[in-house]
Amino acid sequence: MLLLLTLLFVSCASTKNVPYFQDITSADKSVLANTAVFTEPAIQPDDILSISIFTIDPATSMVVNQLGTQALSTVPGQVAGITPTAAAAGFLVDKNGEIDLSIIGKVKIGGLTTFQARDLIKEKAAVVYKDPNVQVRYANFKVTVLGEVGRPASYVLPNERVSVLDALGLAGDLTIFGRRENVLLIRENNGKKEFVRLNLNSSQVFNSPFYYLKQNDVIYVEPNKGKAASLNQARTQTYAIIGTALSVLIVLFSRL
């Protein structure tokens, strides 16, 4: 009975923190005055980019895009590029911040955004081709979600505008045992690790400069007390079954 009351108390205490953004009013419409500003990430060495150059001549486009046409591998039933089993393919940015394009040659794009890189590549391609159309995006923009989520894994995304909520949604959302008020974000910045705590119970998470993720960010969701209680309950049940079995055996042997 004492164990049952303890589990009931723990479960009630933990479920009060389950809803997200609890400070948003129940009015028909709520507006946040300030929200986080998205900053486009800069291209770095070892990034892999999907680059497509389209020209009037389809045959020429095929030659230029011989690497860019390799699609991300997927598992049946999953969305292309949004899968923990995706394998990136494209143009590798070398240690000098350059990529080597067929016919066009080397182009230095390190430190640029994908939009700036697109304009630069288009300028270089226009010397060789007439009215080229260029598309550039990340092929290895990866975030990792661990802990109390439905599908913990590393996810490769075709879009660099990814928020914390996007990543958690891809990972199947937090389980009932996940601590929503203390989500840990781990980010590497200039060779150093940054650790940030985010409170998903509060709408202020939308104002955080860490709301939008960067490449190779790691999100860890800690378990709450309810998880420990559930594990203790399972362990207690196991001990109870073993104790009951031993008691039955003792009674049987005592009657022999």
Give start-end ranges of low-pLDDT stretches.
1-7, 67-83
The appropriate CATH architecture of the largest domain is 2-Layer Sandwich
Name of the level-1 CATH class of the largest domain: Alpha Beta
CATH topology of the largest domain: wza like fold
> How many discrete domains?
3
Measured between the Cα atoms of the first and last residue, the distance is 34 Å
- Overall 3D shape: elongated
How would you state the average pLDDT, rounded? 79
Number of helices: 5
Determine the structural class based on helices, strands and strand pairing.
alpha+beta
The overall strand count is 10
Amount of beta strand? 15-25%
Instruction: Spell out the CATH superfamily of the largest domain.
Output: wza like domain
Strand line-up of the largest beta sheet: 7-6-10-8-9
Counting copies of identical and different chains, the oligomeric state is single chain
GO molecular function: polysaccharide transmembrane transporter activity
Keywords: Signal
Pfam families: Poly_export (PF02563), SLBB (PF10531)
Domain Polysaccharide export protein N-terminal: 42-137
